[in-house]
Amino acid sequence: MESKGSRPKQPDWLAEVCQESSIHGMPYIARKDLHWTERILWALIILGSAYYAISSCLNQWYRFRDNPLVYEYEYLFGLRIFPFVGITLCPTYHDETVIPRLINETWGLDASKDKEKAAYYRKFLLAINALRYSTLETLEPFENDTTLDNVNYLNILLTLQKKIISVKNPAELAPIITEVGLCQTSSQLTRYGNPYGKLETLDVEPMKQCGYFSNCITSLKPLNSIVAPIYMYVHDVEEMMLPTTCELPIGMRKTSNPMISMLC
Ligand SMILES: *[C@@H]1O[C@H](CO)[C@@H](O)[C@H](O)[C@H]1NC(C)=O
Ligand SMILES: *[C@@H]1O[C@H](CO)[C@@H](O)[C@H](O)[C@H]1NC(C)=O
């Protein structure tokens, strides 16, 4: 039997916590048989590891907060490859400089001569450019104006947004008419939203296949360096975008080369 000391010892809580802790290295801090420099070394290692653990958690949190786009694919057993998401970009942009020319071409009006009428047509152009299913009432002020009938609306939209429409050949994104107006999409179903009024497939990037262990990354530079807010919708590449799918307003980017990059 071990003899106990005559003086009742205060329990050393710190040593006990260290010894019982499952954190790697903690028991060494409390071990009296080690040299003090070694125990300090262990303490430093634990502090350093804690710092890195906390900072990587924080980094994950910042990434989630600033770039909250996570694409999750339900993984089925035996599934080796799966198609990358479809992306539809809906910019809220118009090119102010083409408006006088559009007014001239469409209504034969010299914008510099009849300022009042030109302002009225400009308002109409902006209304149809920003037209969404939910903002149809913005057309009410124009309801009785017959000069607005038989106007080539698509041509107007394509002209107003010409600078942000991708002109790559072969095209990565195709224009598509949606509930939120004219957008650019990588959906493989462009034939059903073809803005040219035909049931015809438009050129888009072919479907990309992702491996189950590989990161599939895309980065799009659709705006030709124009700074404009755009909405991005993420959907199955073999579906069309619906405004409820996943809407991510990408605010005004202050960089000269706005780029959306996405990691999933
Ligand atoms: C409008 O278009 C006509 C030709 O269609 C051109 O002669 C005229 O200069 C244009 N006016 C303006 C203000 O652009
Ligand atoms: C259009 O005409 C209808 C019927 O005449 C009238 O009730 C309505 O207020 C008019 N709308 C505008 C914007 O002038």
TrEMBL record:
Extract the InterPro entries matched here.
Answer: ENaC (IPR001873)
Residues crossing the lipid bilayer are 40-62
Which keywords does this chain's UniProt record carry?
Answer: Ion channel, Ion transport, Membrane, Sodium, Sodium channel, Sodium transport, Transmembrane, Transmembrane helix, Transport
Keyword Transmembrane: yes or no?
A: yes
Q: Kindly give the Pfam families that the UniProt entry links to this protein.
A: ASC
List locations, semicolon-separated.
Membrane
Q: Name one GO biological process term.
A: detection of pheromone
Molecular function (GO) terms listed? calcium-activated cation channel activity; sodium channel activity
* UniProt main location, coarse: membrane
Q: What topology in the membrane does the UniProt record assign?
A: Multi-pass membrane protein
Annotated GO CC locations: membrane; protein-containing complex
Q: Which family does it belong to?
A: Belongs to the amiloride-sensitive sodium channel (TC 1.A.6) family.
Put simply, this protein is called GD10437
Name the gene: Dsim\GD10437
